[in-house]
Amino acid sequence: MISLTDEQRLIQETAREFVDNEVVPKARDSDRAQRFDPELARRVGEMGYLGAPVAEEYGGRDLDYFTYGLIVEEIGRGDSAMRTVVSVVTSLVCSSIVRWGSEEQKQQWLPGLCTGETLGCFGLTEPDTGSDASNLKTRAEKVDGGWRINGGKMWISLGNYAKLAMIFAQTDPEKKHKGLACFLVPTDADGFSSQEIHGKLGLKGSDTAELSLDGVEVPDSALMGQVGDGFKIAMSALDSGRYSVAAGCVGICQGSLDASVAYAKERTQFNRPIASFQLVQEMIADMVVQTEAARGLVWRAGWLKDQGKPSTTETSIAKLYATEAAVNCADRAIQVHGGSGYVDDHPVERYWRDARVTTLYEGTSQIQKLIIGRAYTGINALIP
Ligand code: COS
User: Fold this and answer.
1) Residues in CB range of 176: below 8 A, 6 or more apart
2) Nearest to 368 by CA among 310, 302, 320, 318
3) How do residues 312-327 score in pLDDT, each as one tens digit?
4) Residue with CA nearest ligand 1 atom 35
5) One-character DSSP codes across 135-184
6) Which among 58, 76, 91, 379 has most CB atoms closer than 10 A?
7) Does the predicted model carry a pTM greater than 0.85?
8) pLDDT tens, residue by residue, 230-277
9) DSSP characters for 222-250?
10) Which numbered atom of ligand 1 lies nearest the CA of 236?
């Protein structure tokens, strides 16, 4: 039986209160206005949630991954747009700098990222490069004392607000994934520009950008790790990013369940609360089972990370299951709510729209299945 320590319970309760008091009341308005709320992101940082797993000496809270997951679940229940801030800033950017950055890079970037004063973004995906992440068209060319970067990035969360962009680029196409490098690029560098992407199905309260790097020059000190480490940096970042997406999706499952139970007990038809109908209870039971199963998988992945054990496969299992469960639970929650679930008086239609992207980004469900299948069979079905 897994039980939380007193400290973990306290951190979970504090996060729950913060989310209920400060995140939930703003979620619908941000969604309606299709507006990212940088002040709220800053509050998330002030609470210490952006630096949760980062060492205190760099401005973080030095929490373990398991406890970080508890916080992310609560934020995911409140608003996936804010959970995206945590996934990007903490899991993709901070965790990469912690693992791969030089001492100078850690001191330069981590304190600002942990407080939310500086937002970061993760520039891997390109217009023609999604699942095939090593096949980047962005080029980094060596120049005197640094690098010149040319290319474009697509679907970049926080790209219009970030002061720091982690940019992955190819230095030598013949080397394929072993030629990739990762650069810490200040977004005010000459030649760097961003454009907002409109018309999304969900995550309307989140900022999504297309980035353009037109001859952006950075010094040698902007290179993170070695030339050739880029792909490993990206994959290890995704080990953390996928964990946070999965944890956030447990929050969507729980939120869908909570809203459905409350509504089903209050709404009457045929002179009875609809919660008393067997077919409604079936939907609620399905949500309960999926929520608990998703949480268990996330907790296992977090525990493995804290033990320093390999967790790539288990993270893919958690990400695959929790994201699909979130889509399903939100869909069932709309069904329980009937017509009321189709408008934004209740959070469930936003849950559904926001959950939908989670089976796409940070590795589609199909990519997760191929990672899991390869791990269990020893056969690589990724490249036919
Ligand atoms: N951590 C560190 N290194 C890793 C790693 C991880 N989790 N996973 C793989 N690597 C390393 C491998 O050790 C290997 O190193 P060597 O070249 O030294 O042997 C290298 O990276 C290549 O690994 P692999 O053979 O697994 O790569 P593949 O090309 O077969 O598979 C997939 C890569 C498809 C799994 C990968 O491209 C992927 O995850 N794609 C989806 C990308 C994605 O999620 N995009 C969304 C972006 S963000 S929002």
Assistant:
1) 134
2) 320
3) 999 999 999 999 999 9
4) 371
5) ----EEEEETTEEEEEEEEEEEETTTT-SEEEEEEES-GGGGGGGEEEEE
6) 76
7) yes
8) 999 999 999 999 999 999 999 999 999 999 999 999 999 999 999 999
9) GEES-TT-HHHHHHHHHHHHHHHHHHHHH
10) 1
